[in-house]
């Protein structure tokens, strides 16, 4: 495991903080009058999902988390969590409900993802940036509504609900951003 320099603390970096892997979600360099500069960070604990804030001082040393990524295929989700198949060994990998709940809505059967491992245990799911999903139910657009105007809720094939433009109908395929959970565009 290598050490991280103060200048390497930025969004997306995974480091060991309080002996657990944390991914930096936001980092901002702050220089206050007559004080040493600090890096204000917002980090997500990859084991618990809890978000913590920390201000790192210049010269402080952090350990880069020794994580590995492994390609896997989503099989199904149930009350226990999400179940995947390793594409090379064909073994089933289970990720508990507490680590997968916020990601299951973007996954449909046979979606390829990367599983993130820490200490040889799967701890997180790395989703594709955008996924295409079918609209299962949404209220009809009302005549006279503009195509550029408002939005309405739509329930997708995975059970996820997103706000979509008024011209989207049941049966349409849409593209959703997995980072923000927002509608991007109609998918062909």
From TrEMBL:
One GO MF term: translation elongation factor activity
Domain Elongation factor P C-terminal intervals: 131-186
SMART domains in alphabetical order: EFP, Elong-fact-P_C
Swiss-Prot/TrEMBL GO biological process terms: peptide biosynthetic process
Pathway: Protein biosynthesis; polypeptide chain elongation
Cellular component annotations (GO), alphabetically ordered: cytosol
PROSITE patterns, alphabetized: EFP (PS01275)
UniProt domain Translation elongation factor P/YeiP central: residue ranges: 69-123
Top-level taxon of origin: Bacteria
CDD domains: S1_EF-P_repeat_1 (cd04470), S1_EF-P_repeat_2 (cd05794)
Subcellular compartments: Cytoplasm
Keyword annotations of the record: Cytoplasm, Elongation factor, Protein biosynthesis
Family of the protein in this entry: Belongs to the elongation factor P family.
Record HAMAP family: EF_P
Summary of the function given for this chain in its UniProt record: Involved in peptide bond synthesis. Stimulates efficient translation and peptide-bond synthesis on native or reconstituted 70S ribosomes in vitro. Probably functions indirectly by altering the affinity of the ribosome for aminoacyl-tRNA, thus increasing their reactivity as acceptors for peptidyl transferase.
PANTHER family attached to this UniProt entry: ELONGATION FACTOR P (PTHR30053), TRANSLATION ELONGATION FACTOR KOW-LIKE DOMAIN-CONTAINING PROTEIN (PTHR30053:SF14)
NCBIfam families: efp (TIGR00038), PRK00529.1 (NF001810)
Official protein name in the record: Elongation factor P
Organism: Candidatus Doudnabacteria bacterium RIFCSPLOWO2_02_FULL_48_13
Gene designation per UniProt: efp
């Amino acid at each position: 495991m290598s050490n991280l320099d103060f200048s390497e603390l930025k969004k997306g970096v995974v480091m060991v903080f309080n002996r657990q892997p944390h991914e930096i979600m936001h980092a901002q360099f702050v220089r206050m009058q007559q004080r040493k500069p600090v890096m204000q960070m917002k980090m997500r604990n990859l084991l618990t999902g809890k978000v913590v804030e920390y201000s790192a001082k210049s010269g402080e040393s952090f350990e880069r988390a020794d994580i590995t990524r492994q390609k896997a295929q989503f099989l199904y989700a149930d009350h226990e969590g999400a179940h995947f198949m390793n594409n090379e060994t064909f073994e089933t990998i289970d990720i508990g409900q507490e680590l997968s709940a916020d990601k299951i809505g973007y996954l449909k059967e046979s979606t390829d993802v990367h599983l993130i491992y820490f200490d040889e245990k799967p701890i997180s799911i790395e989703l594709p940036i955008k996924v295409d999903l079918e609209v299962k139910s949404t209220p009809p657009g009302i005549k006279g509504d503009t195509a550029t105007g408002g939005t309405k809720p739509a329930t997708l094939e995975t059970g996820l609900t997103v706000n979509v433009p008024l011209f989207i109908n049941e049966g349409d395929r849409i593209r959703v951003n997995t980072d923000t959970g927002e509608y991007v565009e109609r998918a062909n």
